[in-house]
């Protein structure tokens, strides 16, 4: 029998998982056989159940043929997700046939009889039910019964030719128990979905999937993160910034502090990212909050991803400095998400940002801090690649992105976890300096791609009125060494917000 050629205009068949459909550009080609492979525990059974449930929701008959798990085990898995599996049929094969006296004969090997019976049982169930969607779980049982690769391949090919005449879409589940490098199934299947689970030294497992092969359709290559939780699998397609450009107004937005606007050459420009970099406690987070307050007062929606401190601490500290965020959180203009980097995958984070920007129309995105975000990555190179695409996406959406990067050390030479300044459009540097026995803070804009920024160094301080930026300090020494000192006579900001007497 010859497999029928699908009409190129045939409507795609949903997998039941929105993220996979997105990666495939709409879903699977109907009436084909697909392989879902992965080690035990990666989510193959859950994916298969979602596939059949989507078909049931569309009025399509479904059949789950299990050669490994029992029917009761499958029902328990479905119930743990809150699913009703009575909408499709579950058929359990090889449940107790090994005890049948038929297999005690000696003319043929028992495996030969069992394999033939198994294949006939599959065909019988398909002929009887005439399903639109079929799941066969798992191929490892057929592989063992076949005893040799040639016989195994012939059986799979025979099943494929038979099922091709029944106009049904088939998922074959495989637990990768074959010899390493054995790609027989890959060559037979119309498409291959590969699931993977990685265990790190700390935190939960990171799961990812990729389309190893898919004939006849264009799909998004590479790995895509996914989570497996109550409710099923959720896939987060890999972000490609070039696919998400929109038109936006690039007029500068005020930071809420006039001298900071002057330092930045007019303010923050939509479609750019600003990196706040400096040692711990210097005022990076408070500067970000000050900019967000100004945007919120203009009615612009903002989202704050908080990696380092708790939400309670952020709200308390901001209120002490005269920048109360709580009313904006209550009105919904501001969303603050406290993130646990040990439990978050890069793809899940990027997906949440996309949802915030596209669905909830966020105009400001703050990430505090990149140091903690780094810990959510499998390696530094992945952080840079992910952040490159994420910042590119936000820039093309006309979002003002604010990033916080803490440096190790308070005085003297300071170090970064990662150098991401080349990805940022604006870099604002914070430094401690000494003046007449006091430790003060300086701020400077060292980079701006979007406008002509001021290159002077200004004093910076936090007070009950929020952020204050002083006059330009012309007589600094050692700023780039990490231990600047001030030798001039420019007036300093006093504790009450007024200038104090000039030095000297």
Kindly describe this structure.
- Helix 4 runs antiparallel to helix 5, helix 5 crosses helix 6 (149-164) and helix 12 (346-358) packs parallel to helix 14.
- The protein is 30% helix and 24% strand.
- It is elongated and about 95 Å long.
- The strands form 3 sheets. It has a 9-stranded mixed β-sheet with strand order 3-2-4-5-1-6-7-8-9, sandwiched between helices. Strands 12-11-13-14-10-15-16-17-18 form a 9-stranded mixed β-sheet, with helices on both faces.
- The protein starts with 17 loop residues before the first helix and ends in an 18-residue tail after the last strand.
- 40% of the residues are buried.
- By secondary structure, it is an alpha/beta fold.
């Amino acid at each position: 029998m010859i497999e029928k050629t699908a009409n190129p205009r045939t409507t795609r068949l949903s997998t039941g998982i929105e993220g996979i459909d997105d990666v495939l550009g709409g879903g699977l080609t109907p009436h084909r056989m697909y392989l879902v492979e992965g080690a035990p525990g990666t989510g193959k059974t859950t994916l298969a159940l979602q596939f059949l449930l989507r078909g049931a929701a569309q009025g399509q008959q479904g059949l789950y043929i299990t050669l490994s798990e029992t029917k009761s085990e499958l029902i328990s898995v479905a119930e743990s997700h809150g699913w009703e599996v009575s909408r499709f049929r579950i058929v359990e094969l090889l449940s107790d046939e090994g005890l049948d006296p038929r297999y005690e004969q000696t003319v043929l090997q028992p495996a030969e009889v069992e394999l033939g019976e198994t294949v006939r049982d599959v065909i019988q169930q398909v002929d009887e039910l005439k399903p639109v969607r079929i799941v066969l779980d798992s191929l490892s049982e057929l592989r063992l019964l076949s005893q040799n690769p040639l016989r195994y391949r012939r059986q799979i090919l025979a099943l494929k030719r038979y099922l091709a005449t029944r106009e049904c879409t088939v998922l074959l589940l495989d637990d990768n128990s074959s010899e390493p490098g054995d790609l027989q199934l890959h060559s037979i299947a119309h498409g291959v979905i590969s699931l993977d689970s990685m265990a790190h030294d700390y935190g939960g497992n990171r799961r990812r999937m990729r389309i190893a092969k898919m004939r006849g359709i264009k799909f998004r290559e590479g790995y895509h993160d996914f989570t497996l939780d109550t409710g099923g699998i959720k896939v987060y397609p890999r972000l490609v910034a070039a696919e998400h450009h929109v038109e936006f107004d690039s007029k500068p937005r005020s930071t809420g502090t006039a001298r900071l606007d002057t330092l930045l050459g007019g303010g923050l420009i939509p479609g750019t990212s600003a990196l706040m970099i400096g040692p711990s406690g210097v005022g990076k987070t408070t500067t970000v909050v000050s900019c967000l307050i100004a945007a919120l007062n203009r009615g612009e929606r903002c989202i704050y991803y908080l990696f380092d401190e708790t939400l309670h601490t952020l709200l308390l500290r901001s209120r002490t400095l005269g920048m109360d965020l709580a009313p904006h959180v209550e009105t919904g203009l501001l969303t603050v998400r406290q993130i646990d980097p040990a439990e978050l995958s890069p793809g899940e984070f990027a997906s949440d940002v996309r949802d915030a920007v596209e669905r909830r129309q966020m105009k400001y995105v703050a990430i505090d801090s990149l140091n903690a975000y780094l810990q959510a990555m499998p390696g530094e190179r992945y952080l840079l690649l992910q952040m490159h695409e994420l910042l590119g996406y936000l820039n093309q959406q006309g979002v003002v992105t604010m990033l916080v990067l803490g440096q190790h050390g308070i005085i003297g030479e300071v170090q970064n976890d990662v150098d991401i300044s080349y990805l940022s459009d604006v870099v604002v540097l914070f430094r401690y300096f000494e003046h007449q026995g006091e430790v003060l803070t300086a701020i400077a804009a060292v980079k701006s791609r979007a406008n002509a920024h001021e290159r002077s160094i200004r004093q910076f301080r936090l007070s009950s009125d929020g952020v204050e930026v002083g006059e330009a300090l012309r007589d600094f020494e050692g700023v780039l060494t990490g231990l600047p000192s001030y030798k001039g006579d420019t007036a300093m900001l006093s504790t009450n917000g007024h200038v104090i007497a000039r030095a000297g």
